[in-house]
Amino acid sequence: MTSAADLCVTADWILPLDGPPIPNGRITIAGHRIAEIDAGGERVRLMRHDPRPQGVTHLHYKDCVILPGLINAHTHLDLSGWSGDFISPPKLWDWIPEVVRFRRSNAYRPGEAIRDGLQAVLAGGAVGVVDVIPPDWFTWGLVPEQGADPDGDQQMPEWEPSRLRVLSMIECLAPTGRMRIPPEELLQHHAMACRQMGWEIGLSPHAPYTVPMSVLKEVVKVAVDHNATLTMHIAETEEEAVFLSTGGGAFRDMLKHLSAYRDGVFSGGNSLQDVLEVLVQAPRVLLIHGNYLGRSQIDFLCQFRDRLAVVYCPRSHEFFGHTPYPLEQFLEASIPVLLGTDSRASHPDISMLGELQAVRRKHPHIEAETNIRMATSTAANVLGWENDLGNLAVGRLASFTVVHVDGLASKKDPYEAVLSPHAQVCAVWLAGKLAYQQTGHAGEQEGSVA
Ligand SMILES: [Zn+2]
């Protein structure tokens, strides 16, 4: 790499994840990307007249670990302004009508919530996010208006690598038997709006109790035709299997309560296995939750592990009081597990570091490195983002998270240190630019950081 360096960032530890942890590590940044990564940090710090090229700014983060920027694989940013109560644990079929009520209230300001939510995602240590967005989002004033330029220049805004990477999944709902806008047309609208936002696109059939099998097949076909990623809430509760097989139970009552039930749409005779068999036909699938997937379903999914992942949302899982999550079973079957925050309607913050710490708390025997990989290298590989994110290496984007750890010097394992309850995100860098800095946690700086 011959391009001139712009900046050196050093910390007590760097966790590149494609190699062993680097004590007193240094990342040299040129433009958006990593030009060099090595153990020169301490040497650079101590030399008063070091041989760095003039004009290169050096920033040191004391008592900190730098790791690849985290990836939040599931959230609903439009709910970031959630103002409901947190009475845990609710039943999912009682909680969903509360979300519907909130979305119909004056407190629901989705455009603002998404802007705030993106900032909160960043503050929680993430550089990329998979968001599920309701189908009417085009009307929220988020998308820049074309032609607003006084010179009449209708060029679309260019993607800036120094922005948070967003995979926006358009939500598909059809409780009464068909989608208000058919999936192909909906995806076209979504793609047009996302292009202006610099977001990537995908499809999210909501759940087996709101999307009948016939509609699910249509959505999967559209995903295949457009090589789009698909994500679906699945096996979140045991009641879901009851609804699929009988068409009755708590979810039928919920749909009736929401005036969204129509006879003959969900007539039973299906199983979770039937839903999975349709989903695995998509080019890439994120199965959200999967709390109650059993041995036979895990064995089945294992055959498709090159194109699917499950997304575990540890604190949302805790909020609903589910039985222990089958994390070990998924990992033993080599099914990729990603982590997500879910929305603020089931946990008050959108912090990916908080989710990593929750995994440590709930599954203490899972290795710290494995835990961190779920939110970095594994997520980047599954989402096709591995050339930019997921690892820290020469040529990758300089997108990383700086975690401050009290008493770091006394801790032997930097992976464990990141997961300690008092670790906190102190800065996030996106493609060579400081994108978030926690108050009071600026690095020690020579020169100025643009
Ligand atoms: Zn969700």
Describe, in plain words, how this protein is organized in 3D.
The protein is of the alpha/beta class and 450 residues long. The chain has two domains: 7-69 and 390-446, Urease, subunit C, domain 1, CATH 2.30.40; 70-383, TIM Barrel (Alpha-Beta Barrel), CATH 3.20.20. It is 30% helix and 23% strand. It contains 15 helices and 16 strands. It has helices at 41-46, 92-103, 110-123, 183-197, 213-226, 239-246, 250-257, 272-279, 295-302, 314-319, 327-332, 352-362, 368-374, 377-383, 414-419, and strands spanning 7-14, 22-30, 33-38, 57-68, 70-75, 126-133, 165-172, 200-205, 229-234, 284-289, 308-312, 337-339, 400-404, 424-430, 433-437, 444-446. Strands 1, 2, 3, 4, 13, 14, 15 and 16 form an eight-stranded mixed beta sheet that branches. The protein has an eight-stranded parallel beta sheet with strand order 5-6-7-8-9-10-11-12, with helices on both faces. Helix 9 (295-302) links the parallel strand 10 and strand 11 (308-312). It is globular. Mean pLDDT is 90; it is low at 46-52 and 147-159. Bound molecules: zinc ion. Zinc ion (ZN) binds at residues 74, 76, 233, 288, 342.
